[in-house]
Amino acid sequence: MSAHYLDHPLQPGDQxxxxxxxxxSREGKIALDDFRGRRPLLVGLFRxxxxxxxxxxxxxxxxxxxxxxxxxxxSLAVVNTPVERARLYFRYHPIPGLLAASDPERASHRxxxxxxxxxxxxxxxxxxxxxxxxxxxxxxxxxxxxxxxMDPATAGDLLSEKDGYEITEADQQVRVPGHMQLIGQFLxxxxxVVRWSFTEVxxxxxNMCRALNPEELMSAVSQVAH
Length: 226
Fold this sequence. Notes:
Residues 10-226 form the Thioredoxin domain. The protein has helices at residues 52-70, 83-92, 107-111, 132-135, 152-163, 169-173, 214-224; strands spanning 20-23, 29-31, 41-46, 74-79, 99-102, 116-120, 129-131, 179-181, 184-188, 194-199.
């Protein structure tokens, strides 16, 4: 893993750094260099599985996986949940065919320039700090799951209650009180160069907890496929 951490997310044209993580979906390790020179790769860097939005992001990646593979693009979901805890979760919530890796230290997130966001009472310096006064004005819309667009904190509580996800000691180990890891998805070409991304950093917080646009993703994929 590169020790050089960026102060902004990787942008199209940037070379993605290598990382080596414990595989969740199989034994052994997964390295970004495993794909370099072979095929394009969609990398999803998410929070731990205790995050209800990230559980849904991973499930969505599993659904996209078949369509991406038909285009010659592999997918890799990274969660900062300890590997044994993540394996237990996916045993009951399968992600068939999707590669997944564990990064409890969030080293891959830092290497891709995704910051750890600090929550404050009313001081905002996006994307380093955000005031709760600002968070409460944000809206997350998940038709069919939420009764209406609502702030991320309330939405997260409702979704967690709906899921019945039991937070364990392993989940607690990766929590950073008063902070939240920002996340993103990066489409790399076969040489490991970023060609498209969707991150929570973009949009001054308007992307917080939002799902990516599948049409936008598939349009980007068509540019790097084969």
